[in-house]
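Entry 12.
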Amino acid sequence: MTSLDPPHRVFDAIIRDSELNGTKFTETDHYKKLLLSKPTNASQVFELSPSSLVFGVWNSTGEGGGLGAKFARCIVSEIVGIGAVEGQKGAVRIDPLGIRATARVVGGALDWTVATGAKGEKSARPSEINHSNIISNLVSGGVTIDYARHTTVLTCARLRRLKFAGVRDETAARAVLAAVSLVAVLEMTAACPSHGYVFFLWGGRKVTAFDVVPQCEKDDHAAGCFKSGDTMKRLLLGTAALIAAAAVSPARAADLAVKAPIAPAVTFSWTGCYIGANGGGSSDDSHFTTSVDPGTHLNNPADLAAIGAAGTTSLLDGGAFVGGEAGCNWQTGQFVAGLEGDFDYHLIASTPLINGTGTLANGSTFAFIDSMRINWLATVRPRVGLAVDRNLFYVTGGVAFSNVTLTQTYNDTFNNAVGSSALSKTLTGWAVGGGWEVAFEQHVSFKIE
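Predicted 3D structure (tokens):
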């Protein structure tokens, strides 16, 4: 919380009851000097919170039951509605049938009767069986406008009334406050774009005016319209800097002590490299085809067909994986591009397998088991996305690698044949997807992909 947040700014009870570097604020020299501050000696307020002098502040907790020093605001604003038309609103609602508010009924919407008031009778209001009131007359209420004009005025006369003890040239301090005022106008314009004017008053005369305009589709300087307000912001900030720089020479600045400058806003960037851990779930689709090589004791076409039919199928399975990843991002504007690689071990809940059994043409039986296991999965993928501050929405696609192991066992009673084999192979394919990543702080993020 800063002195801009509480209602009484730097003199607020929230500030008073806080600590400064572990010391109660009321016991510091800053607080003791604040109690002595007044419009004829505003140096301490200027040192701790110059914005309080711009927007006005009152030491309501001062001595004398809230009779502490008051500093009138130097910047004021108003919003005027143009083309205002008075509106109307409903004043009184009545039942169109004249049913009194005291009426009661018994039963539901389709079978009600008027309540008799007998003891124990369960009655309801007419509105509970869908009898409603309507507006009987209208009265004035509310307005509509064509547009609103926001005017902000910095009164140099108010600035001139402020005195700064110990400062050789008080104009320098007033110039800094004028620059702070311009920054405040900039922030108000950015928060709520509207068409308005900023006036500087000196001795009751308008000497300078800036036309603050809303955002436009494109720059139109002749019409005073600036795309995204960027040019207008540069104009206001540049003017603020010129006012301060022109008025505050090194000799003058030696007497000014602004110890609480406004910290610049930190803009988050996705540019950089990273490492991380990941985990997730998988759904695996395995396709099995079984055939018998020529030259075995199985040469009857019926036997070959029986074994092939028992060992040809598709199976679905699922599991989980855990692993790590690394990559780099490059951001320009809101566009983010990057390259990412990951490697994950597959934690199988169960292994897809075939228990094939059958009878050969001579009456012998056979049985075999085919199983498939995914050992690991890796991908290398570029990704592109749109950044909205600390949120990144992206799509990704690239090459994928997966290592699988096939295991098979076989036996039959025809020739008392027994056999087994295993084969591991790394397959290459593709990966495509999308995701959302959010950065919790400068170096920690979480994503769902």
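Annotation: The longest helix spans residues 170-191. The longest strand covers residues 365-388.
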